[in-house]
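Residues determine shape. We examine one folded chain.
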Amino acid sequence: MIVFDKLRKLYGDFCALDGLDCTIPKGATVGLIGPNGAGKTTSMRLLTTLITPTSGDVLVDGVSVTTQPHLVRRMIGYMPDTFGVYEAMTAAEYLDFYARCYHIPVATRPALINDLLGLVDLASKRDALVMSLSRGMAQRLSLARALLHDPAVLVLDEPASGLDPRARIELRALLHELHDQGKTILISSHILSDLADLCTHLIILEQGKLVAYDTLTALLSAQQSRRIVIQTLTPTPALYALVTHFNYTISVDPQLPTRYIVQMTGDDAAQAELLKVCIEHNIPVQQFASEANTLERTFLQVTAGLN
């Protein structure tokens, strides 16, 4: 659906994006992550035709952003990280204004606007002034605007920025619904826990380069480092010698001196061997559990040593 083909963007001597090359399948929800300055916003602006590449190309359903940008714009709904609105308009007037920009026939606009306000749970705010909406409501209105022309692709730049927990939950539910409708969604966010709940795929950028791209499941399972929590009945200094014998690292929870955190490499057999040795050496194990890799931990492992 979306093909980044050796995409490169220079600003003078500075390389903001250096050879991004990957393919996003139709219907995927893709998280675009990386530290500030990694090239996330540049990638989105290139995809949405707001800027042109120095070299390379982006194809959206086979259509080039460099040779046919006007056709690409009809296939993309873009929600920027800043919400620019005409605050004296009502929510319905705001959507009607942009519907006219998209040349949506006047006869179909009222029903379309009502449907979109219902989709983003703003039907009750139809006649409310935009300036009166909360941050979360304004974000949902911005998303409704991006959906006016029924784009196949949604590009969302930090959609949860500044939202309170309830608004974030509501936004995630809405994005799940759009994914179920078959939309291809590209999301940039620093809230990695939200992306872990939403995304089917991940793109990780660092210093303008593609560090990793795969399904979320594959990236999480590919990391060999495991985090093991060992809870003992009493503080057990002898555990340090056992763990370091395997060349694993161990630390104690500063809030709970009987809770030890082990960072280990290896498979399930290696984990079982560690438990076996603990029992053989009479370590008073109360709990022995492997914590699943989180997206935060995976991101840190993938980008380790790249700064």
Remarks:
- The chain has a mean pLDDT of 91.
- The chain has eleven helices and 14 strands.
- The two ends are 32 Å apart (CA to CA).
- The chain has two domains: 2-220, 223-302.
